[in-house]
Design a protein that fits this description.
- The chain is an all-alpha fold.
- The chain contains 8 helices and no strands.
- It has one domain.
- The longest helix is centred in the last third of the chain and has 50 residues.
Length: 207
């Protein structure tokens, strides 16, 4: 019942419903992929730093191995800093910053598509509105035609507009949620990088 009704509305929405369908598929696919990815890479930053700090008191390589065995951008960034052989604070910081840029790029992957769909979907809905109204006026131009056929063009306009707005709203909510997740990961990386720099012994310092 619901599926047949949905298919009926889809058919009444006109040709613009097909690109809108593609947009909705992209939104769902990106949402599932990003949710699984962020869930997989999430780690307890405080617990990881505690293990690294304890390992550093014994051996730097042991701390590096702990990070390498842990998944996620935070561990990868810390491992990059611990791989630097010198005791130069500047070199360690640069190594972590370079790795952090790579990890941030991976964190933001495909989110730009959601941002594009947020803008594109309402425009496609507006296009459906225009084509629907054109169809309505085409019916009006037919003398002694079928006056009730006008509702077909109006229905096309309304369905396309509502669908475009609905997809845009969904994409915006998902984009906002994932953006907040990315900001959280970046914050954890910045905080953990500062703590690691404080853990390590530096040249000329009594640590």
């Amino acid at each position: 019942m619901f599926i047949s009704k949905a298919l009926g509305l889809f058919a009444k929405g006109g040709l613009v419903m097909y690109p809108l369908l593609v947009c909705s598929i992209f939104v769902v696919a990106i949402a599932v992929e990003r949710f699984c990815y962020y869930r997989q890479i999430e780690v307890d930053a405080d617990n990881l730093l505690k293990k690294v700090k304890e390992a550093l008191q014994r051996n730097k390589n042991e701390a590096k191995q702990i990070c390498e065995k842990t998944t996620g951008p935070l561990a990868a960034m810390l491992a990059a800093g611990l791989q630097v052989p010198t005791s130069s604070r500047c070199n360690v910081k640069e190594a972590m910053e370079e790795e952090a840029l790579n990890q941030i790029t991976a964190l933001k992957a495909r989110l730009n598509y959601l941002d594009t769909i947020v803008t594109l979907s309402p425009l496609l809905g507006l296009l459906g509105t225009v084509t629907g109204m054109i169809n309505s006026f085409s019916v009006l131009n037919v003398s002694s035609g079928k006056p009730f056929a006008i509702t077909g063009g109006v229905a096309e306009a309304l369905i396309a507009t509502a669908t475009g707005l609905g997809i845009a709203i969904l994409a915006l909510l998902i984009y906002s949620y994932f953006t907040s997740r990315v900001d959280y990961f970046i914050y954890q990386m910045e905080k953990s990088a500062t703590k690691l720099l404080n853990f390590l012994p530096w040249e000329g310092e009594g640590k």
